[in-house]
Amino acid sequence: MDDGFLPLGANRNLGPLIQFPRKHLKLIVVAIIAGLILLTSSYIFEQVDAGEICIIQNPITGTLYIYTTQGIKLQLFGKVTKYRKSMQYWFSSMKDQGALNDESIKIRFNDGGHANVSGSVRVDLPLEEKSLTAVHTKYGSQRAVMHELVRTIIEKSVYMSGPLMSSTESYAARRNELLGYIEDQAQDGVFATTSIETKVKDPLTGSDKTVTVVELIKRPDAPNGISRREASPLKEFNVRVYNLSINAIKYDDVVEKQIAAQQSAIMDVQTAIANAKKAEQQALTVEQTGKASAAQAKWEQEVIKAKAVTQAEQERDVAKLTLEAAKFKKEAAITEGEGEAKKKELIMAADGALTQKLAVYEGVMKTAVTELAKQKWVPEVVMGGCSAQSNGATAFNDMLGLLSYQVLKSINTDIQIGKTKPPEKPK
C-alpha cells in the first residue's frame, strides 16, 4: 500500500499488517458465520422421532406449533417440549418397575381390610391439535401429565373400587372384577353407588356381623350400563388408558391372617369334598371293576365253551368221517368177501371142489399110512411057514383100502381108475 494513503500521524511501521490479503479476510468471516450457525443450529432446527409429539412455542409471539410426525422441524429459538405418544405408567412396589421407591396405591375394602395395589397401565396421548394444546397448556410436561393427571385418576379409581368387594373376595374370587372396576372408572368416570347394611358370617369366628355393602347404580344409557358420579378428566383431554395390569396386592397382616385362615378352612372343606368324591369314585371303581371282572369271567367261560363246542364239533366230524370210513371198509370187506366166496363157489361149482378134496384125501392118507405102519401086522413068532406074513400084508392092504374108501366117501368123491364118467343125460 502506498504510504501516501495513510492517515496523518499513523505509524509507518504497520504497513505489513495493513497489507493482509482481502481474500483471506473473507474466508475468516465465512468461517465465523458457519461456526455461529453450527453453534445455534440446535436452536434453529429440532429433530422429532416417530414416537414423539413436539410442541414449539414461538419466543416472540408465544404461538404453539405442534408436530406429531417425525423429521426435522424449524425451531427458530423457540421453546421445545416433547411428549411420548404412548407410554407405560407404573404404580408398582417393585424397584425394577418405574421408580426405585414404592409407588403402589392404597385400597380399602368393604370389610375394613386394607391393601396396597401394585401394577401398571398403558397411556396414549391424543394426536389432535386442540387436545394437545389443552394438555400442554394445563400440565406443560410429560411428567406433570403422568403424575398430576394419570396417577391422580388411577388412585381415585383404585380407592373407589375397594368398597365394591371384601378383601377376601379380591384375593381370589373377584380379582378380575377389581381389575375391570379400576380400568372402567379411570377411563369413563367414578361409579355412582348406593350403600346398604347387611349381615354376613365371619369366616373366622362363624358369627354374624354387620357390614356396609356398596352396590352400583345401573343406567342403560351410561357407559357399560353403570351410572357415573362424574366424568373422567381423561375424557376432557382425550387421553386413553388401557391394559391395566395388577402384579401384586399386599394386604395388611391382619387381613393376610384372615385370608390364610379362610383359605385353610376352604381347603379343609375342599379336602373333605375331595375325599368324599374319591371314596364315591373308589366305590364306583370297585363296582365297575367287579362288573368288568364278572364280564371277563363270563366271557372267559364263553371262550372255554366255544373252544369245547368247537372241539366237540371237530371230534363229531372226525367220528363221522371215521364211521363213514369204517362203513366203506366194511362194505369193501363184505364186497371183497362176497367176491371171494363167489369166486370159490364158482371154482367149486366148476370142478366139484376136487382140489380141496384131494388135499384132504392126501393129508388123511399120509397120516393113516404113517400110523398104520407103526402097527404090527405080522406076528413075531410064525408057526407053519410063510402064510402068516402073507396074511399080515393082506390085512394091511385091506385096512388101507377100507380107509381110503371111507375118506373118499366122506368127501363125496368117487375115483374110478380107467373109467370115464358118462355124460349127463339131457333134461
Structure, described:
By secondary structure, the chain is of the alpha+beta class. Among the domains are: 17-80, no CATH class; 85-251, Tetrahydropterin Synthase, Chain A (2-Layer Sandwich), CATH 3.30.479. It has 10 helices and 11 strands. It has helices spanning 15-18, 22-44, 129-138, 142-161, 167-171, 175-188, 233-237, 253-351, 354-373, 387-410, and strands at 45-48, 52-57, 64-67, 71-74, 79-84, 86-91, 105-108, 114-124, 193-201, 208-216, 240-251. Strand 9 (193-201) and strand 10 (208-216) form a beta hairpin. The protein is elongated, with a radius of gyration of 71 Å.
Short description:
With 427 residues, the protein is of the alpha+beta class.
